[in-house]
TrEMBL record:
This is SGNH hydrolase-type esterase domain-containing protein. Residues 56-210 form the SGNH hydrolase-type esterase domain. It comes from the Bacteria. PANTHER family: SGNH HYDROLASE-TYPE ESTERASE DOMAIN-CONTAINING PROTEIN (PTHR30383:SF5), THIOESTERASE 1/PROTEASE 1/LYSOPHOSPHOLIPASE L1 (PTHR30383). Pfam families: Lipase_GDSL_2. InterPro entries: Ester_Hydrolysis_Enzymes, SGNH_hydro, SGNH_hydro_sf. CDD domains: SGNH_hydrolase_like_2. Gene3D superfamilies: SGNH hydrolase (3.40.50.1110). GO terms for molecular function: phosphatidylcholine lysophospholipase activity.
Amino acid sequence: MLGRVLFLVTLLSIPRLEAITFKDSDVVVFLGNTVIERAQKYGHLETSVTLAAGKKNLKFRNLGWSGDSVFGHARSYFGPPKDGIGRLKADLAELKPNVVIVCYGALAAFEGDKGLPEFIAGYEGLLNMIAETANPREIVLVSPPPAESLGDPMPDMTEHNQRLAQYSNAIAELAKKRKLSFADFYTAVGTGGKGLTDNGLHFHEKGYRVIAPKFTKALGLTPPNESQLESERGGKLRETIVAKNKLFFHRWRPANETYLRLFRKHEQGNNVKELPMFDPFIAEREKEIETFRQSISTVK
């Protein structure tokens, strides 16, 4: 209880994110581990932010990678972590994002006190790389969401939520130190919800639908209203976002990566030239997204 009180008191001293600043035609990258990667499958987070951005025509790219860390462990495939960071660096250099929304800490929090210094040091390195590689206009650090206690036979996540609160606090302090925006996703979601995850950690479709407006609000934006989201056009917008995300996923994370870019590229590496062929299809989906966005803006 004391730790939770201290967490809240500390957060009071940290400037809140008034509103993320988007400009027309911005490329926005979502970066993080499981909570970010799984979001592309359902489209709720991106749909909510798309509509909350008003008249801005944005292009979103999801670079989330399940199980990833600030050191790029999961992205490294068969090599050392530096290979994962190298891959991410190449992705950012190609995408040239104007805004990067970063959400790490959910996995690292399992290490508790002993892992916190290493996590923050790694986060610093990651942020340095992002700034040097892409030089985005804005970087937003998002705290990890809380875990759920689903009852027997699932574990009680109260203690883990205390660790998540601790890591959220440290991320907020890091944002303050680097003069970056901080989005308090942990507090926005809250620890009282049940039935939003598959296992206490990973949100399912209903979970993302529930947390999407909370995520948007944590970014300092006004979430779209239910009539917009539940309209036929709102449904089509989300479906098109999901379709676009699927195309982009296959573009940057092809299933046969080993043959295209890694140690078996001598067999099929010539087919890597086909990856850019996804780009026109992605562009078509984005035109449809913009058409739906414009039409939905008239729904009250």
